[in-house]
Amino acid sequence: MGIAATGIRETAKNNGDREALSNAFSSLLTLNAIGAIIAIVALALVTWFVPTLREYWQLMLIGGVKIVLNLFLIEWFFKGLENFRYITIRSILLKAVFVAAVFIFVRKAGDYVIYYALMSALIVANAGFNWFYSRKFVSFDIHNISLKTYYKPFLTIGVYLLVNSVSSMFNITYLGFVGGVKEVGYYTTAIKLYGISLSIFTAFTGVMLPRMSALVSKKNIDEVKRLTTKSLDVLLFFSFPIIALTVVYAPEIIRLIAGPGFEGAIVPMRVTMSLVLLVGLEQILVLQILMPLKEDKYILINAIIKAAVGIAVTLLLVNRLLSTGAAIVTVCSQVSVCVVTVYFVWKSIKMKFSTCNFLINLTYGAIFILVCLLVRHYASNLTGLFLSAVICGALALVLQIYISKNEFVIDSVRQIRRRIT
For 63-75, what is each residue's pLDDT tens digit? Predict the structure, then answer.
């Protein structure tokens, strides 16, 4: 449900007051426990009554265990405290162990159950460390629980996340029914790189949420606008070169991450890579503005519009275009939600967005594509991909510093120079 966003927001708000922080922590954890129980019951019922899912009962059982253990993960608490050093160190160490375990225990295609069990074991380890370390800052007290204070944002944001998840899964599930496992494989392979690319920016927005929540609590809206503009500059700086590279070198990238036989993922990948920009924009506007402002009703409306558009376009396109249609569905639903979110942000804080800046960066994107096409003409392999990445990266820096005067890029370059000298 809405524990991640609500937890970060309330933790940032009460940071520095141990009693208030403990009360918020206890209340949110209890709400999350109720949600987990409902989710487990729903999962058990669906697994029992849907034959397709019953076939994978082992995975569903492990998934149920994951739901229980996720309750104690409390990652939202440390993000709210802005204790990112602890999160980073713990994540690197445990994920290194996880990767080693995958290489040791996952030997063949039939070991997918072991792989999923290892993923659950990673959550167990993270939850154990988090729960032990959290006692330094808060204590769980059942007597100071106030569900009334937090249930509304918890449910509203939770429904937003749930509708988002259901609409995404409906796309994949429907594709599986009409196109089979192979088409699902093409689509999930196509969106894999987009997910990896976006995770870099997701980390950035995750850092900004508690900071924005603190600024909103102090009613410093001008600083919220300034940081949002800076975030948009970051997004435009890194998204267009990535989109250009992946669109041009999609065949090489698919061969690298999936191997032969996945050529059907090339076109879907080219379609979905625009989501790096679109989803990044939604994350900035929702996580950095609407959530800290507690405009939860707007967030819920966003999800409903996204789901409605997604389901409608799925029924229109996926039957005929299969995995490519599923990719188009995802992009269309994301475009719709971005348009609506921009309106809601303007309505909430009267923030204006620079269309000119976007068009300039779009022109940069066209230049990056031309550079990649030229390099690929002479080197249509991983060497060409590497050369294109280097050239586009250098070109992006030059354009952002000397043409766009991107404050984030200029400051970053200055800091790097200071550390070197």
Answer: 788 888 888 888 8
